[in-house]
Here is the input.
Amino acid sequence: MRKRQQSQNEETSTVPQAPGGNQRPNTCCFCWCCCCSCSCLTVRNEDRGENSGRTPHTTKMENIQAVEECQIPTTEEILSWSHNFDKMMNSPAGRNLFREFLRTEYSEENLLFWLACEDLKNEENKKLVEEKARNIYEDYISILSPKEVSLDSRVREVINRNLLDPTPHMYEDAQLQIYTLMHRDSFPRFLNSQLFKTLLESTEGSTDDS
Here is the structure.
């Protein structure tokens, strides 16, 4: 009788406890509808992320993509932007406002790409040039990137050749193409946006008050 009870106890100790117990079974989490603490689901998600080929939405050029520090623009300056896209793009305040508008149209990557190219053109260290050129490619040129910019095949071929020996000016053709796209396509809508009108009205109001 004692041996039989001992045998039953041993059998009971080997039976896995239910998910609500203190211990969890050493099995795949799908056996318990993903409510156990095993790591297989995490591993699968990590493998899926590594093999998906898509870069994260946060790009490698974050250091130049932060909102630029600038002074509050005057009414005259804001009005000058409406007549001159180049002047707006040369103004940190103008770029910040335009970037905010592009974000509403899900095309912020165009301006970020342009800024990254500007940063690359000012780089003199060969090692950093190669690193930044590669990061720009992965963030904005690669078809696997969620922030890929729209470029024609000719420009892409030039970029692919230049990647063999990166230079600070290797993206100039692509940068000009995106600059032109923003000027012709996004800029007119920006001038008619409530964002631009509100800023203009607020600066005019503060001028009248003073």
